[in-house]
């Protein structure tokens, strides 16, 4: 059986990356009743309870999860064309992805369907 890397080893390998974006430990809490379409700021978000997950709008799962939001275009576009990418991994290691795009800035993102990665 292959040995898993320790968190310290992983942290060292990721040390050149932004810890705000790639942290394995930290994330902002997702609140009861939130809409995942509104999570457009790059970063990590945590849904800590199944009851919270079940109350969310535009979520592909009803169990606790970690959400990563990525900026595909490389800018915090308030005007013009922009993309966002969301990657969600739930309590049971089910992974879902989707992207949103807009030609008129981040406030007008149109999200596409969640796709489960098998």
What does this structure look like?
The chain is of the alpha+beta class and 118 residues long. The chain contains 3 helices and 7 strands. Strands 1, 2, 3, 4, 5, 6 and 7 form a 7-stranded mixed sheet that branches. The chain is globular. Residues 1-7 and 10-22 have low confidence and may be disordered.
Q: Regions with pLDDT < 50 over 5+ consecutive residues?
A: 1-7, 10-22
In whole angstroms, the N-to-C terminal distance is: 22 Å
Q: Give the number of DSSP strands.
A: 7
Pairing-aware structural class of the strands and helices?
alpha+beta
Give Rg in angstroms.
15 Å
Run of helices and strands: HHEEHEEEEE
Task: Report the portion of residues in β strands.
Answer: 25-35%
Helicity level:
10-25%
Biggest beta sheet attributes: 7 strands, mixed
Number of helices: 3
Q: What's the quaternary structure here? A: single chain
Number of domains: 1
Average pLDDT, to the nearest integer? 82
Shape, per Cα inertia axes:
globular
């Amino acid at each position: 059986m292959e040995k898993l890397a320790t968190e310290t080893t992983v942290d060292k390998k990721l040390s050149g990356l932004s810890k705000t974006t790639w942290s394995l430990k930290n994330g902002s809490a997702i609140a009861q009743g939130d809409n995942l379409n509104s999570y457009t700021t790059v970063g990590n978000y945590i849904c800590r309870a199944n009851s919270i997950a079940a109350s969310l709008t535009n979520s592909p799962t009803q169990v606790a999860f970690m959400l990563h939001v990525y900026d595909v275009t490389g800018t915090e576009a308030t005007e013009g064309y922009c993309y966002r990418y969301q990657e969600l991994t739930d309590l049971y290691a089910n992974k879902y992805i989707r992207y949103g795009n807009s030609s008129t800035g981040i406030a007008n993102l149109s999200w596409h369907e969640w796709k489960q990665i098998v």
